[in-house]
Amino acid sequence: MMFGGKLKKVITDISSETILCDTCNTLNSQSDVCSLCGSKIHQRTPYSVALTWAFILSATFFLIPANTLIIMTVYTYEGAEPGTIMDGVIYFFYDKAYHIAFIIFFFSIVVPIMKIVVLYYLLYIIHTKKAVALHRKMFYYKLIHFIGKWSVLDIFVVGIMIGLVQFQSIGHVTAGSGVTAFAMVVLLTIFATFSFDTRLLWDKATDE
Amino acid sequence: MSEIQQPKIKKKGAIWIIWLIPIIAFIFASWMSFDYFKNSGEDIIVTVDDASGFILKKTPLSYKGVSVGSVKSIEINQDDFSKIDVTVRVEKHAIDSLLREGTKIWRVSPKLSLTEVSGLSSMLPGPYLEIMPAVPNLEMLKSLPKQTVFTALNEAPENVFKKGMLLYLESKSKISASAGTPILYNKQIVGKVVKKVLKDDYETSRLSLLIKKKYVTLIKDTSTFHEISGLDIKASLSGVKIKMDSLSTLVAGGISFDSPPGKSVEEKHIFKLYENAHAPLISEKDVVLNSDQAHELNIGESKVYFKGVEVGFVKDLDFNIEEGSTKIFISFDKKYRHLANSSAYFWIVKPELGFNKINGLDAIVKGKYITFSANKHGVDQSEFLLHNHAPTIKGKRILLSAPDAGSLKVGGALFYKNLEVGVIESIKLHNDKQQVNISLKIFQKYRSLVNDSTLFYNSSGVEIDASLAGVKVNIGSLENTLRGGISFQTADFSQKSDRSSFILHVSKSEIDDILYRNSGGMHIYLSSATMGSIKSGAPILYKKIPVGKVLSYSLDHSSKNIIADIYIEKKYTSYVNNSTKFYNASGVEAKISLGEIAVNTESLSSMMSGGIAFYTPDIGTLTRDDFELYNSYDEAQEDMTEVIFSVPKLSGIKVGSRIHYNEMEIGKIASIGMHDETFELKGLVDPRYKHYICQDAYVWTESVSVSINGVKNLESALRGSVIKLSGNYCKKAVEELPIMSTPPSPHFSDEGLRVTLRARRLGSLNVGSPLFYRQIQIGTVEKINLVDDASAVDIELFIKEEFAYIIRNNSKFYYAGGLGVEISLTGMKVKTETLSTLMQGGINVVTPPEYTKKAKMHARFFLNLSPDDAWLNWTPSITK
Q1: Three-state DSSP class for B223?
Q2: Between chain A and chain B, how many beta carbons pairs sit less than 8 Å apart?
Q3: Most buried residue, B341, B566, B713, B778, by most Cβ within 10 Å?
C-alpha cells in the first residue's frame, strides 16, 4: 500500500524450499516429517484460514451478548446491582477510578474487539493478497498474540469477586450469562489466533 | 515449484465441520441474547405517594421476600404532582402470576411499634415495594385480566395467603386495638388484627381480623368480641386483684371473644366489638336517675349495686342548668335490668361518710356508688329519682338536742353496746338557733331499750383519756369513729318510756360523769386562793387512794377564791369530818442533797394531773361542806409558825426555798411579797423550831460559791438557794427577820475568844484566813473592818475555845502569808508557811515564855509585818 514501492524481496521457506517445523522450529528440507523431532510438518497448516474464519466469526457472534448481557450482579444490602462490562467501566469512571476504568475498558472491550478486527484484517490481507510490509503484518499478529491472554482479565475479576465477596445478605456477587459469552469471545479469539498460520503472511511477501 | 511434488491429500470431508463452529456459536450467542431479553421482564408503573429512599435499579419489587423486579425509573406523576410514578421492571417469571387485576402493591418501610416490628427487612436497604396478588392460586389468577398500572397502597393489605378466616369487627366507640393487636381466646392468641380502617361514615372503625385456621371453629355467630386492656386491677376489701393478660396485651391491648354454642360463621362475617367484657352484657335500655347533683360520680367507674351485686355503672352524666338537676345514665346489666322497675328505690351511698357496714369500706375504695332496693313485681320503668339516703325504716322516733352536731351525719348510726339499733334521720337547727335537733329512729325491735333513764351521747370521734393509770382510748366502733354515731346507755330498764326528747351528751365521759355524780357520794366545796392543781377530774386522794374527783371549779366573786366542787365516793365519805384538811397533792416533792435524792410523790396520776389529798387528824362529825384547800401538806398542818424575812435582793430564793437551821430543814418559803423595795418572804417554820427565830438570829442566803478554798454550798447549786438561820435558842420568837447579804462567820455562834488586831494594811488576809500557832490553825479571821478614820485595818479574829488560853496579853501576831525570800552571801533562803497561807495569807501568833494573863474577850493587838527572830525561838509551855 503506502510502502508498496519500497517492498524488498523476501526469502521465505517456500522460496528456499524448506519447511519449518511447528514443534521444534527446525528448518527441514521438504519432507512430511521433521528431521529432528519427527513431528508431522506442513508447508502451510491445513485449513488454517478456514478455521480462523470459523473462530473469528464465532467470536464475533459472542461479542454481542458479551457486551450487552449482565456480566456480574453485585448484591448488597441495598439490593441487586446487575452490570454489563460497560456498566463496570462507567461505574469506575464515575467513581473516579479512572485507571481501573481504563484497564477494564481496554482489556475487556478494546482488546477483544481489536483482536477480532486485526484478525479480520489479516484474513483480508491474505484473501486480497494485499501487499503489506511483512514486519508490519507480523507486528499485528504478535500484538494480538501477546495481549490476547490479558483479555481474560475480566473473567478473572468476576471469578475472584464471586469467590471473595460472599457476605450473604451484606453483599455477594454472582456471575451473569454475559461472562459465558465474554469467555467464549476470549476463547474463540485465542483459538482463532492459534489456528492462524503466520506463514501465510510470508506468502504474500514472497510474491512481492 | 518442484516436479516431484507429492500429491496433497486433502480431507475434503472435514472442512464443513469447521463451519459448524460459527454456526453453533451464532446459535448459542443468539440464544443467550434472546433468552436474556426475553427474561428481562416487563415494565409496570406504580403510583406511589412517597418515593423517598427508592434507588434506581436497586430498590426491589419484592414478593414475599423474593425480588421479582426493581425500580427502573422514578418520575413525577404528570396528572397529580403529589404522586410519583415509579416504573418497575418486573421479572418475566413474575409477570403472569403477579401482574393481574387486583394485585396490590405497597411500599414497605421499617415500622417499629409496641406490637409490631415490621418491615425490618427494609431497615438497611431502605424502603421497597411489596407486591401481592389478589387471589392465592394460579387458576383463580388466570381468570383475571392483566394489569400493568398500579397505585400503591398506604399500608399492607390483608394477606391473602394467611391461612385462616377473615372477620370484621365494627365499633362506634374508641378502639385502642390496631393492626397487630392479638385476638385472644382463653388467653391464647388465636389471631390478630390485620387492619384497622375508619369507615366512610367516619364513626365506625372496622377491624379486620385474621383467625388462625385451627381456631376458626371457635367463632360462632353468637360470639361476642370485646377489648381487653391487659391489666385489670380490681380493688376490693377482700384484696386487690390484679389480672394481667399476656404481656403484649398489656402494652397493646387485645381483643377477646367467647365461644358460646352457635352456628359457625362465614368468612368476612361482621361482628360488633364491645369496649370491655361487660359491655356485651349491658342492656340496651339505659336507666336514667334524676338527682339534684351529680354526687361526684365518675362516668364509667361509679357502680350500681343491688344487694351487693354489681348490676350496672354510670354511663353518662348530664347536668341540666335550667332545671338544676342531673340526669345520671346507668348502663344496666341485661340480667338485672328488670329490677329497675316501678318498685325500685335508688339511693346513693357516700363513702365519704366513712364506714357503712362492710360495703362502706368498699365504697372507700370504689368511690361513691348507687344502690337500690326493688322487687321483681314492678312495671318496667327507666326513669327514677336518685335519693340521697337509704329508704327510711320503721321504728320509734326520738328527738335529741345538742349544742352542736359534732361530726354526726344523717345516716349515722345509733348504737347500743356497739350494736346498731337505729339511724340518724335528720339533723336540724333548732328554732332558737342555739341547739341542734337530731332526729333518731330506733329500729322497731330495739325500741324497748330506750326509756326515760336513757342517756344519749355522741360516740363519734376518738376519746382519749390519758392518765398515769393508763391511756384509755374510747373509740367505740371504728365505724362510729369515722362515720359519727350516737350511743346510749339505759341505766334502769324498769323505767317508763314516755319521753321522746333527750339531751345529747357530748361524750361517754360526760355520761360517766353524770352517773358518777349520782352514785350517792358527797359533794364538798373547797376554796383556794390559787388554781393550784384543781382540775376537773383530778383525783381526791386519801392515803394515796383515790376516793373521789374534782368535778368542777368556779371563781367565787366575793372572796376571789376558787371554789372547787369535789366529790367523795360514797364508801369513803366517812373519812371526811370537820377536822379534815385538804391540800394540794400535786407534783413531786424531791429532796435532793449531795448525799441522797429522795423523791416523794403522791400517786403518779396526781403528779401528772394534779390532785387533792386530805387527811383527817381527829375523829369527829361532818357538819359542813366547805373547806379550805391548802397549798401543801405542810401548810395544811395547823401550827406552822409564820416568819417574814425581808431582803433587798432575792438572789435565787423562790417559793419553796428551804429554811435551814444548822443544816437542818426547819421550814420553807411559802410566798414572796414586795414591800417598799424589799422583798418580804413569808416562811413557814416548823413550830418545833420556832424558838430559833430569835431577835439575834443571823439570817443569810447561801448559794453556790467557788473559790480557791473549794466549792461551797454545792448543794444549793442542786436545790436552789437556801435561807440559813443561825443563832441561839431563845424564849421569844420574833416574826420578822432581815436577811443578810453575807454569811456569818463560821463561828458566829461558837463559843471562843474574839480579839481584834490592828494592822497597817490587810495584806493577803481575808475573812476566813487562818490563825496559826505553831502552824496549827487555832482560829480564823472573822471580820475585817477599816478603822473609822481609815488609818488602819481592824481584823477580828476568832480563836477556838480550846485554844483561847494560848492568847495572852503579850502574845505577838504577825503575817504568815507570802514568801519570805532572804538573799545573802551564803545563798538564798525561801520561807513559806503552809501552801494555803502562801496563797491565802494567814496570821501567826506566838506567845512568849514569860506569858502574862489570858487575853480577854475583844482584846486588841497589833499585827506585825514580820516576826522578830527571837519570837521564833519562843517555846513556852502554857498552862490552861
Answers
A1: coil
A2: 87
A3: B566
